[in-house]
Amino acid sequence: MTELLFSRTEILSGLPEAAAATGITLLCGIITAIVYRLGADKPSKYMMVSTLIIPTIVQAVIMMVNGSIGAGVAAAGAFSLVRFRSIPGSSRDICILFLGMAAGLVAGMGFLGYALAVTVVLGVVIVLAEKLLPPHGRDTLRQLKITIPEDMDYSGVFDEILDEYTSSHRMTRVRTVRMGTMYELIYDVHVKKSVSEKEMLDRLRSRNGNLTVCLGIVPDAKEEL
After folding, report:
1. The pTM is what?
2. What are the residues facing 169 on neighbouring strands?
3. Contact 203, 197 (CB under 8 A)
4. Whole-number pLDDT of residue 214
5. Is there a contact between 146 and 158 (Cβ–Cβ < 8 Å)?
């Protein structure tokens, strides 16, 4: 097993070796693309293509510059420019891209078995972590918007109701609406599972004069690196 993982293939020694290296890195790309697809809420076709071909691209570049310091520095400079021509991505997307680049780098150095093993092991770890770890608080978070008259003092006016129907609540923003004739209070709340959301909204409407009350999900916010 050790010899299989850490044996080094001279990729440039012939066409069969180069073809084997390309096949292994393509397989690594397929694995990273599957890992990305399994955990993505809104998978992107272009991200799928990127995770599929990045290992092979990196492997080809490393294979060519292996042993040449000047070519290696030039390749590093070229890779560094990619970051400035891409939009910010989520931490998960960047982690998977790094996994593909690492697989291509290891394969380009000739350690084909190790490249495949690292891709499989880390891919399984990512999938299991996403399935087994408990969801973070954002999955149960709701956004509550309450419209009140301009002359109503909103400081703590709904705290009694929110304490009864939510496990936690926090006012995040206050703004004027309808040409400044009314206020809109925006809360982040965690509604208790055992309560009726309709009953809570009815209580809030009785307190704000039957004006608009809106309860919905919190807009997506990406965890960016």
Report:
1. 0.61
2. 189
3. no
4. 93
5. yes
